[in-house]
Amino acid sequence: MDNHGTSKKLDISDQNNIDWGPVPHCFTFMQGRIIDYVAGQSLTVAFPVLPIYLNPARTMQGGFITAAFDNVFGPLCYSATGTPKTTTVDITTSYHRPISEGDELIITAMVKAQGKTKIHMAAEAYNRNKQLIATAATNYIHIK
């Protein structure tokens, strides 16, 4: 928020100057690319669907899809709370259709509710053709 109480949208070309807090190795491993960001409100990240993420059906394994959601929720939580002292209480993922190697999983997460000790976020994941792949919701809590 700026001094007038309005949200500030990030110039994505300036993404290296964003304070994401400690970046988990899994975010780097999954090669996330920031597409859009509104401080404390929403974050969109694209993940390539690589051969290492595939199940025997040659589509992205559900666990990797959930990990991608968690890799968006974490930085968004940090942006909203200003602290790395949070932890996931739960994460629920619903899968709507498979996504194949060579495509890109594009996740947009939004803060839905935030209190003193808990933050609730929800997200949707689409492929490059704008087809819904999965949805997720999570709750994080502040830890002391």
Structural write-up:
By secondary structure, this protein is an alpha+beta fold. It has one domain (22-142): Thiol Ester Dehydrase, Chain A, CATH 3.10.129.10. Helix content is 17%, strand content 38%. The chain has helices at 25-29, 62-81, and strands spanning 33-38, 42-48, 86-95, 104-114, 118-126, 132-142. The protein has a six-stranded antiparallel beta sheet with strand order 1-2-4-5-6-3, with helices on one face. The radius of gyration is 15 Å and the shape is globular. The chain starts with 24 loop residues before the first helix and ends with a strand. The model is unreliable at 1-13 (pLDDT under 50).
Compact description:
The protein is α+β, with helices and mostly antiparallel strands and 144 residues long. It has helices at residues 25-29, 62-81, and strands spanning 33-38, 42-48, 86-95, 104-114, 118-126, 132-142.
CATH architecture: Roll
Domain module tally? 1
Indicate the CATH class: Alpha Beta
Instruction: Spell out the CATH superfamily.
Output: Hotdog Thioesterase
Distance between the termini: 25 Å
Give me the number of helical elements. 2
User: Main sheet: which strands, in order across?
Assistant: 1-2-4-5-6-3
Structural class: alpha+beta
InterPro entries: ACOT13, HotDog_dom_sf, Thioestr_dom
Keywords: Hydrolase
GO molecular function, one term: fatty acyl-CoA hydrolase activity
Family: Belongs to the thioesterase PaaI family.
